[in-house]
């Protein structure tokens, strides 16, 4: 519970059940009467059980009922963790558990447990900070000033923005550090300075900037500045650094706070991590290419050649990717958190590009000895998706095969062009001319049966009637979006398992598919970023390629759900990249995503018992 809430309740309790006016309470806490109204609403709805604050438009507010159960809600670990770290950053000396407990209105035992959890979290993330404990003195936060601030910022969520404006949310978190008028002023200054750069920021992004600035203001006021021991000055000239400087110079003048170059760079790197600038604005922020940029360029070249998208045609997009990575690595080397609200959507909708981005991130981590988080991989994906789309004609390549009547073929061509603009009709052939079929055709739409003895390297064959009915057009639509899996999936590669966890399932699946040599690579890929795409579906794969000439897919239907990453999974598509990685499989991943957008598809597949049933369900409407 917020400290102001506690004090407000205590004041009402001491009033011996008399009414207290809203203006008196507002003056007492240096806030507006509107804030008092909101506080009382929040207290009544979320904290009071056997008591209530009642309001009277003429008299004010009065507390009625029993407060004995008020402070016994011990469940909100995250909120207490925030207040503990904030209390540690509010001073420079040790603070005892007893003082923390009194400050936060929880038992000493609860605070000790919370601190222990925080110690474990910090150790698990291998941060350059620690909670130091000394008997008879208490605890304090020790280590990098940059990471101390980042730790507190991580504990601030944007959930409150769903039911209150930004300035009230800032007051909610930092009302004991700054009075309401100061928070209004700081927020207004930041909003005005950001507006000068014509940035279209979301409420969450603007809120994050304000939170970081408030934390910096407090720490600098306590003479806890960032020094060269925490972060070296990189002397870059990114646009975000100019924006940060503009904000802090304005506040320094208005509030007499001594900000310096380290503080400018700290806020600038936070802005880079927030990705506030449009992608087209990204460029390398200094004149000469340094050693790090040469390493990044060589990694991009290596991965680009592996996946076949290095070309003169893509040079501008590759330069943007280089600029993005170069810029992003500056905040990443100091563990600045990257915020990406679209990561789940990116992973599911751009699966192929995301997989390439994971490979690129792995190579960068090895080459530069730096950790690249999942959210940043999401941003790499957007760049790579643009490169892939620029590298190819995304329209499906189709051949039409008709019996003997050319008019039937022409009618089918006209209808397909009308209904499917993403299709390119390469050629019309009579059945006896099928030997003239050009290379690269993905799908044949035919009005006549094609003899089995004709060996065609085509992913999909769709049979329609010569009348070309509306049902035929529906069938074409379904088969175009569902036909690739049949091309890649062998009847011997559908398995029905009953494993408890992803590790055991992957081990069993690689054994059954005779690809045990890829197991370690598959697990390493999973550690980089979960391959769960939602709707009980996961799509694991190795970093390494197999000895297969085309993409190979193994499907496992597991008897029980299991936790795969941060979501449950039960249907597993394990795909093995072909020996020639330059083969682009974007359309296959699009098919998987398109199919599972239908929520009932998962339920249907969980009830199949063999390969034929799988394909029947997969191709159903």
The total tally of domains equals 6
Inertia-based shape: elongated
**Assembly context of the chains:** single chain
Structural class: alpha/beta
Catalogue the unreliable spans.
Answer: 71-75
Rounded to an integer, what's the Rg over CA atoms? 30 Å
Mean pLDDT: 86
Query: What is the strand content?
Result: 5-15%
What name goes with the CATH superfamily of the largest domain?
Answer: Mannitol-specific EII, Chain A
Output the strand order for the largest sheet: 9-12-13-11-10
Task: Report the CATH topology name of the largest domain.
Answer: Mannitol-specific EII, Chain A
Helix content: 40-55%
How many angstroms separate the termini?
52 Å
Taking the sheet with the most strands, its summary is: 5 strands, mixed
Helical stretch count? 25
Protein name: Transcriptional antiterminator
Domain PTS EIIA type-2: 478-621
InterPro entries: BglG_antiterminators (IPR050661), HTH_11 (IPR013196), Mga_HTH (IPR007737), PRD (IPR011608), PRD_sf (IPR036634), PTrfase/Anion_transptr (IPR016152), PTS_EIIA_type-2_dom (IPR002178), WH-like_DNA-bd_sf (IPR036388)
Keywords: Activator, Repeat, Transcription, Transcription regulation
Please outline what is shown here.
This is Transcriptional antiterminator. Residues 287-394 form the PRD domain. This protein has 621 residues and is an alpha/beta fold.
Topology:
Elements: H1 3-14, H2 22-29, H3 33-46, E1 51-56, E2 60-65, H4 77-89, H5 97-104, H6 108-124, E3 129-134, E4 138-143, H7 145-154, H8 166-174, H9 180-195, H10 203-221, H11 239-255, H12 261-274, H13 291-307, H14 315-332, H15 343-349, H16 351-368, H17 374-391, E5 396-402, H18 406-419, E6 423-430, E7 443-446, E8 460-463, H19 470-482, H20 484-488, E9 489-497, H21 502-512, H22 519-528, E10 532-534, E11 536-538, E12 552-564, E13 567-576, H23 586-596, H24 599-605, H25 611-618
Parallel strand pairs: 5-6, 5-7, 7-8, 9-12, 11-13
Antiparallel strand pairs: 1-2, 3-4, 10-11, 12-13
Helix pairs in contact: 2-3, 4-6, 4-7, 5-6, 7-10, 8-9, 8-10, 9-10, 9-11, 10-12, 11-12, 12-14, 13-14, 13-16, 14-17, 16-17
